[in-house]
Structure formats: structure tokens, C-alpha cells
Amino acid sequence: MVRVEDRLTRDRPDDEAAVLADLIALVATGRQDALRALYDRTAPKLFGLILRIVRDRGAAEDVLQDAYLRVWQGAAGYAPEAGRPMAWLAAIARHRAIDLVRRRGEVTMPAGEDDEEDWLARIADPRDSEAEFLDRDALLACLGRLEPAQRDCIVLAYCEGLSREELAARYDRPVNTVKTWLHRGLASLRGCLDAVA
Amino acid sequence: MSTSDTTPSDEADLRAAEYVLGTLGRVEHEAYRRERAGSKSLQAAERAWEARLAPLAAAVPEAAPPPGAWDGIAAQLPGQAPRPTVQIVDLRPALRRWRRAALAAGALAAGLALFIAVERFAPAPETTQYLAVVNRGGELPALVVRVDPRAGTVQVRSLAAEAPRDRSLELWVVPASGAPRSLGLVHKAAGTRLPLPAGDRALLDGASLAVTLEPPGGSPSGSPTGPAVYSGRLVREEAR
To answer: Which residues of chain B have pLDDT under 70?
Structure first.
């Protein structure tokens, strides 16, 4: 009998990402139970993202289902070395949600003052792993260096799914101005993040 | 713009960024998707932007999906039952024992269902890996077990396997014939990587993995003494 307790090693705190990557790999082989396990672990996060953009629970449920069917079909295309599983999943969910609101063609009413979220203040989440923590700190620091209008446009587009037109309405500026803000902000962000990395 | 460049032009990279943000206009959006299909550099740029911006997703509060949402997904999956290779002979007895143990220990809600999925991963036989996912109660996954015979390791990632406070979870390999051998204790915080004793590697075909509930520090006798909370057979698939 070989006893091995004394040779235990621990994984890095990226365990959650590794688990999600394993589950996605199983989904790619056609395992429906793995999709279920992935759903149980990630659906609240994806539903939160979708709901914030779609702002209607019924429509958000449809988008959520659509998103996981995309995951089912596209799991083989996920490459762990290209990014964290959650970034991949969030991208799928956000694209499905944004496709819906753009198709719907509604211009959401500019939010009142009391409806404005301070997204950057909300990012701090102590449950994140160390690696995610570092990514987040870098992004926060680099967003902090942008001009406020550029930063707000990027954050509102990501978190609330606002289009250029909606951002233009919110800031009462021409659409081309918003486009310029976005481009300058994104270019500065890339330069800043690449310098940190 | 060349589609084989490893780095896209600045203009193309910003289009990828705006695609990730979702702010491209409809025509630009469609044009981007067409161009991306044939452009590795654009795909890479998009992945990079997803990664850069992903921390923002943490700012958006989670929301529990409606209870019926999963059923709507399952209804649209191809109507295939779980594969026969995942049948676990002793699942039901283990289930009852675990329920009793759980109730006795007050550690788990009643209702335990386990899935095990074993897949061959890499194309070459010498890099064959086994992967098992274990769900608890059909909802929260409990364990992900990865067996790498070539590296000689069993990696256990414990997700929600809550051992009662005064017990330990111990992982065993049970050969097709012969006594179970302990691979070590499953720790609940992070992943546990357990070396597979050299003699056990050849025994993997047809073997089962089992997790039992043991006294703190593991079985004192070297043989399982507590109830099996999980067991599943490893099935090795032939190389394609």
C-alpha cells in the first residue's frame, strides 16, 4: 500500500478557470451533463450580464438559452490559451444580448440620475482569483487614466450594451464625437494595458 | 489588409475592440463578421479585447435565471440519452449510503445524484487522459477528476464536495480485480494533484475511482472504511 498524502500539491488559485475549461472541453465531446454543470456554475453571471443589457426578464431568458446553445455548438472552438473561459462565455452572452436589443431597434431612454451605476466602483469582488485580481487592477488603473467621457462610454457600452447612438443621446453629442471618444479611449486603454503586461 | 498578419492594423484592431464592446453600426458589424471569418489576426485581436475587458463583467451583479431556463435549453439539445459507458453499477447503493451519512453528519441536503463522464481526450494513445465530472443533486457540480496515466497523476478539483467537518474525503483506485488502493485525500479548497503510484497505472483499464468518507486524515487501515460518496468506472476508448 502506497500512501501519498505527504506528496499532495495544490493548484494555483486559477482553479475555477481550470474547472470551467475542463467542462467546456467535455461539452465539446457532446456531454450534455457537462453543459448542465457549466450552466449551473456560470448561468447567474451570464444571466446578470444579459439582463442588464436586455432589461426584460422574459427576453433575457430567451437570450440565455440561445447563449448556452451557442456554447454547445461552439465549445470545440474554445482555446484555453486564448483567454479565460469566463471571458469567452461573457462574450457569447453579451453578443447575443446586444444582437437582440439592436434588432429590437429601441433606443432605451437615457437613465435618470438615480439609475446610474458606478460600474467601476462595483468591480471589486473579493472572490476573484489572484490572476483575475491582477487583470482587474490593471484594467481599473488604465481606465482611470482615460478622459472621463471616453472611459464612461467604454464602460457603459460594455456593462449596459449602449450603442453609439444611445451614448450620443445620453451625452447630447453627435454620434461621430462618441465614435471618436470610443476609438481614442480604446487605443489608450490598449497602450496602457500592454505596457502593464 | 493582409489576413495572414499576426498583428492587425490599428484600424482593424479598433474595429475588433468595438465589435467586442458591441458599438459597431449594423453595416460595420456585418462586414466585420464576414472579414473575421477568414482572418486569424482579427480573431486573435478579438480574443485579446475580450480578455482585456472581461474584468468589467465582474461589475455586473449576478442574477438567478428563471427556474425553467435550463429545461428550455435541454429541450433543444439533440435527444440523446447519456452514453451507456457512464453507467455506474454501484451508484444507487452509494447514493443511499451517502444520504444516510450526509443526514447523519448534517452536512449535505438530501438528494444526491452523480454523473460521471469519462472521456478520452488527446488523439494519441500515449497521451490518453480520463476526465470525470461529478454533479451533486443534479445541480451543483461536486468534483472534476482528471486522470493522466502518462504523467502519472490524478487531479481532483473539488467544487462543492463538502465533507462533514469531522471527516475526510479519500480517493481510491479500485482495480478490476484486487483491493482498492488509496490515492490520497481530496482537499476542498483548491485542486488536489495526487501522484498515481507506478504500479497502479497499468491497472487503470477497467478500474473504478471511488471517493469515500473517512475519519480525519484518511482511512486508518489502508482500506476504505466509510461510505462511497462517488464512484465511476474509467473507460478507455480506442484511438481513432
So the answer is: 1-7, 79-144, 149, 158-165, 187-191, 197-206, 230-240
Q: Which three cell numbers stand for residue A104?
A: 429590437
What are the distances in angstroms from CA B152 to CA A138, B127, B130, B147? 38, 11, 12, 8
From chain A residues 7-26, the ones with a CB under 8 A of any chain B CB are 7-13, 15, 18-19, 22-23, 25-26
Question: B144 and A2: CB-CB below 8 Å?
Answer: no
CB nearest A119 (choices: B56, B133, B191)? B56
**Per CATH, which fold does A13-106 belong to?**
Rna Polymerase Sigma Factor; Chain: A (1.10.1740)
The verdict on B32 and B147 lying in the same domain is no
Q: ∠ CA(A132), CA(A135), CA(A138), 5° rounding? A: 150
Residues in chain B: 240
Say which residue the cell 501519498 belongs to. A4
- Which residues form the domain of B129? 84-233
Which pLDDT does position B240 carry in this prediction? 30
pTM (predicted TM-score): 0.67
Q: Is A64 on the interface with B (CB under 8 A)?
A: yes
CATH for A110-197 is: 1.10.10.10
Considering A69-73, A109-113, B159-163, the range whose residues carry the highest mean pLDDT is A69-73
In a domain, residue B75? The reply is no
